[in-house]
Amino acid sequence: MSHEPAGWALGLDTSFYTTSAAAVDLSGRLLAAQRALLPVPRGERGLRPQEGVFLHVQALPDLLAKVLEEVRQTGAPARPRAVAASVRPLPQPESYLPVFRVSEGFGRSLAAAWQVPFLGTTHQEGHLMAGVWSAGMPLDESFVAVHLSGGTTEFLDAVPTPGGFSLRRLGEAKDLHVGQFIDRIGVALGLPFPAGPSLEALAAEGTPGPAVIPSHAEDASLSFSGPEACALRLLAQGVRPADLACGVQACVARSVEKALRWSLRSTGRRRALVVGGVAANGFLRRELADRIGEGLEAELYFAKPELSTDNAVGVALLGRAAVPS
Q1: Element (H or E) spanning 317, and its range?
Q2: Whether this model's pTM surpasses 0.70
Q3: Burial level of 209, CB count in 10 A (0-12/13-18/19+)?
């Protein structure tokens, strides 16, 4: 007998540079997921907010159609039991970015048309839920969450709740986010934006010695303006691009390690979860996995690389909380 889901939830997320939609059944099985990067012109370091909104409005209908067709092919019911969408970047009242109005507007409209509940969640909570789910991390206790991306660099004390997470900030980037640092140096090296995957590939051809970039971490607060200036100075001095890319990765790994160690010690938590686009970097994952256990009795979890970058899977998983019992 084939498995037919009793119901499912739809999740939508329109973030800084990614349009995404996903569906999960009420047991947490992934039924469908689609995502598309917004195009950024070569040499540019981002998009203006109105450009992002326009591109999301163009991309989301096609992605949604693909997700609904994938769901139909599983034999699931034609409409979801709930719709969830990211309505702002962070779970803070003052947090706002225009691009999230696209997922919110589509989500509210679909929920009204289907006459099902709507859950407004946040991009950050979606990242955390996707990480918990993909890493197989138990949610039976609080943990330290590390969110590393182009728009967010935060170390958080995370307490699981029925509809998401209660989050207390332990530290953050004081100037540039870690993803911004990587992207700025990547663009200076002639790499496409966002530069993370290309910089990681370039760094694999380099050696760490010629480009030492000091890390700046105080407690759980990071600074990357100084490392950026140092990296650009080394580039102007003729350091090989591959060696510079290697130095950038090493600087990021040292900075994150210092802040994560402080976060675990100060909270006494025994688990840590690392999410966000920068968390897909293989060098960073290996360095933290190899070194963070030294002197700390803590379990370290990473979102799967394909779910470290922006996606709607975590949003859909959170949407299950809106389904009437």
Answers
A1: helix 313-319
A2: yes
A3: exposed
